């Protein structure tokens, strides 16, 4: 979105740069939350970053659809992390 949208000729604006910085910040927080095994935080980041822009991208054709798909995969990762958390806690108690 920041470097060049093939469907629009507007280019990078201050709004798209701020939006991109917000998404990079959310991605960093998601990585930190995954590292610390905090599934609720990961789900919160996935939902916050999905609404509203990436949900719109999920419905678009072409390469931008993959951006919305990546958010859904992050949400599925949060659910999988939540489901595997009791096994992770049991494994850490043994060591």
How much helical structure, as a percent, in the residues? over 70%
Apparent shape = elongated
**Whole-angstrom Rg:** 16 Å
Give the helices and strands as they follow along the chain.
HHH
Low-pLDDT parts are none
Q: What is the rounded distance between the termini? A: 46 Å
β-strand percent reads under 5%
Strand tally is 0
Q: How many domain regions? A: 1
Which structural class should the secondary elements be placed in? mainly alpha
Whole-number mean pLDDT: 76
- Main β-sheet description: none
> Helical element count?
3
Q: In words, what does this structure look like?
A:
Helix 1 (14-35) runs antiparallel to helix 2 and helix 2 runs antiparallel to helix 3. By secondary structure, the protein is mainly α. The longest helix has 30 residues, at 65-94. It has helices spanning 14-35, 39-58, 65-94. The chain has one domain (14-94). Helices cover 76% and strands 0% of the residues.
